[in-house]
Amino acid sequence: MKWWQKLLLNTIVFLVLANFLDGFSVDNWQSAILAAIMLSLLNSIVKPIISILAIPVTLLTLGLFSFVISGLMIWFTSYLVAGFTVSSFGQAIIVSLILSLVNAFVGKN
After folding, report:
1. I need a surface site. Which of 1, 28, 62, 75 has the fewest CB within 10 A?
2. Is residue 20 packed enough to be buried (19+ CB in 10 Å), middle (13-18) or exposed (0-12)?
């Protein structure tokens, strides 16, 4: 899947999830696009560093800690983008899980 297609998919998922999940809101489509771009940047720059530092914990939890790291990226995005709000860290993990499932399902050829 190309970069712009993934951004478009993430934008759509953010807009849909904002209608279904309490504690997660996106004010408008511009905020959703900006959040998708910011999440992409965080996932390409910050997430690898955190993942390397968290290898021992990830091994101890048999890989489940990677969901926490993905939730952290959503959480950071909510702090950096106005109009993109996540009420709690647990909500960020839920959004991250759904986003990962949708990307895995749609990105499969």
Report:
1. 62
2. exposed
Residues 1-53 pLDDT 10s: 788 999 999 999 999 999 999 999 999 999 999 999 999 999 999 999 999 99
Q: Mark 24-42 as b/e (b = at least 16 C-beta within 10 Å).
A: bbbeeeebbbbbbebbbeb
Total count of residues recorded for the chain: 109
DSSP per-residue codes, 36-71 = HHHHHHHHHHHHHHHHHHTHHHHHHTTTTHHHHHHH
CA-to-CA separations, 17 to 8, 12, 13, 52, 99, in angstroms, rounded: 14, 9, 6, 30, 9
